[in-house]
Every structure is written in C-alpha cells, then in structure tokens.
Design goal:
The chain is α+β, with helices and mostly antiparallel strands. About 15% of the residues lie in helices and about 50% in strands. It has a 5-stranded mixed barrel.
Length: about 110
C-alpha cells in the first residue's frame, strides 16, 4: 500500500515537470489554467472591438492576423463575442496583440 502511494506521488510529480506550458491567471481572485504562459502580459478593460482593432483602457491596438483569443477558462473565443467592460490580459508582439485572455462580464 505505501509503495503504491509513493509510486503514484512520484508519477504526479514527474507529470507536473513535463507540462511547463501551463500557467495560472488570476481574475478577481479566481485561479484559471491557461494553454500558454501569461508572463509579461498586460491587463486592462476592453472599451471596444472594431474589426482588427481593439481599444483597451482608452488605447487602440491592432490585432495580429493569427491572434489567439481564449476565454477565462482557456477555451477559444471569437472576437465577435467580446463585449465592452470585459477584463483582458494581452501580449504584444511587434506592437500588435498576438494573444489575449478575455473574461466576459457575468
């Protein structure tokens, strides 16, 4: 019995070492697992989405053509579903947004 518990514990520790690309993002004191690291992301509130441009906290950004947008649960989110007042964490690459995590208002 003890040997089985040790083997399972070691297996779980090994698994956690193999999955380095999962990160945790906090929105309103909730922990969320993301499919990518959010280190270096900026935070804000979405004011408006218009085509390939998004305004966050009064500043306009251009979205890269292959922008990756996920909801707060890490699931893909279409730009058309984003509404103003949504919380966002976003990453800039070459001055354009290439990744975003959006938490829609409840």
């Amino acid at each position: 019995m003890n040997r089985t518990v040790i083997v399972v514990a070691l297996g779980l520790l090994a698994l956690m070492q193999v999955v380095p690309f999962v990160s945790t993002v906090g929105f309103a004191q909730t922990e969320i697992v993301m499919p990518f690291s959010t280190a270096g992301f900026q935070s804000g509130v979405i004011d408006e989405v218009q085509g390939s441009t998004i305004r966050i906290d009064g500043r306009s950004y251009v979205l890269k053509s292959a922008v990756l947008v996920v909801n707060h649960e890490g699931e893909p989110l279409e730009l058309e579903r984003i509404i103003p007042t949504s919380l966002v964490k976003f990453h800039l690459k070459e001055g354009h947004i290439d990744k975003m995590v959006v938490k829609l208002p409840q």
